[in-house]
Amino acid sequence: MSVEIRVPQLPESVADATLMAWRKQPGEGVSRDENLADLETDKVVLDVPAPVNGVLREIKVPAGQSVKSGDLLAVIDEGAAPSAAASAGNGKAEAAAAAPAATAAPAAVPKTGPAARRVIEENQLSPGAISASAPGGRITKQDAQAAAARASAPAPAAAPAPASTPALPVAREPERRGGRTERREPMTRLRARIAERLVQAQATQALLTTFNEVDLGAVQELRARHKDAFEKKHGVKLGFMSFFVKAAIEALKRFPVVNAAVEGNDIVYHDYFDIGVAVSTERGLMVPIMRDADALSFAGIEQQIGDFAARARSGSITLEQLTGGTFSITNGGTFGSLMSTPIVNAPQSAILGMHKIQDRPMVVKGEIVVRPMMYLALTYDHRIIDGREAVQFLVVIKDCLEDPGRLLLGL
Predict the structure, then answer these.
(1) Nearest alpha carbon to residue 396 among 193, 256, 187, 235
(2) What pLDDT does residue 184 have?
(3) pTM of the prediction?
(4) Contact, 379 vs 358, CB < 8 A?
(5) Which of 108, 133, 288, 366 lies deepest, with the highest CB count within 10 Å?
């Protein structure tokens, strides 16, 4: 019995997807729920699972082509056995893999994400020959690109034999330590979407950034005092982000316009707090949304952030988790940024930028002391948010972080 494999129903916000790669070829056996292909949308990579056991008979759409919901991708013969050629091919591969097993155990296949797999396949690389830099031995896109660059670099020319007679000195070209090669590859759908949204925000909003600085000594002392008990009780580490989320929510409550959005000639005020937290991945920046963040505890915030980061980097995050949001926070300090001007995640009207914590000399009660300082940046849509509100918004965050007791007492 033939079973058709079609593109799953895409969310309303996603018009189409790109078929990145096939994981099975015609004649190969497939198992129920086994991933057959990767579909890349503007935000996430989706799997196309096999609905039945059988053999992949025919592929209707080649890799690299755009598809829409319901498009026919392939046909499976339910209950069929793999073809003789496929079985022979698999048998040879198994025999080849088993041959060295008598002397040594086979090496584990490195883990790769969708973006890294794409680079590996396009450049016909061997995953086992690529040095993995991510935790758990996972190969990143940057690892694969570096291996591809090394593979395409020309071999150095042999040195000429010394001349038998002296020769006049001649000018020598500087040594080229690497190949002067160029590579062209299309943007991923996610990268293209990020570019589109950033340009859209710059073109449609009157963006302005204001800065302040905060002494994080009190937060550091509080974390140091309670981090072990916190992790033991809640099973998650107490980070800085939960303090910033709590402080931002307090500031948003006092200045609702920062939590608002522009729709035509209207200002839409949100009476809820869906906070987006930027996460950097191999495929680009993602901003998962914490729904009703004001109702979450410190532990709840840390757990959600950890879950979002793991899902975003493994490619298992859902479109629903990336949709919406009333305000965003991004932390460039994790990469060493001392100061930056983040771009608003439209249609939101503001974004808070965190930066590197740096010990700096500060004047405290007439004395110069060294304090752990961080610059804060608020980029906002000046069409609806005035400078007075933006500055006071950052002052509230500063006050809450320099005296964390305010967050507990609602002061």
Answers:
(1) 256
(2) 87
(3) 0.64
(4) no
(5) 288
Instruction: Name the residue among 276, 244, 402, 247 with its Cα closest to residue 350.
Output: 276
Contact 397, 245 (CB under 8 A): no
Which domains does the chain possess?
2-89 (2.40.50.100), 112-152 (4.10.320), 203-409 (3.30.559.10)
Amino acid (1-letter code) at residue 292: D
Pairing label, strands 54-59, 72-78:
antiparallel
Dig out the tokens for 376 from the structure.
């804060």
Q: What angle do CA 61, 67, 69 make, to 5 degrees?
A: 120
Tokens of 382: 């000046």
Locus of tokens 């995953």: 127
Reduced to 3 states, what is the DSSP secondary structure of residue 193?
A: helix
Q: Choose, from 16, 47, 77, 382, the residue flagged as catalytic.
A: 382
Sign of CA dihedral 354, 189, 303, 336: negative
- Give me the residue label for tokens 């020598």: 172
Instruction: Report the pLDDT value the prediction gives residue 308, as an integer from 0 to 100.
Output: 87
Residues 6 or more apart in contact with residue 83 via CB below 8 angstroms = 27, 55
Predicted confidence at residue 155, as pLDDT, reads 52
Question: Active site includes 386?
Answer: yes
Please name the residue ranges forming H helices in 184-259: 189-204, 217-234, 241-254
Spell out where 251-395 has E strands. Answer: 261-263, 266-268, 275-277, 279-281, 284-286, 289-290, 327-331, 350-354, 358-364, 367-381
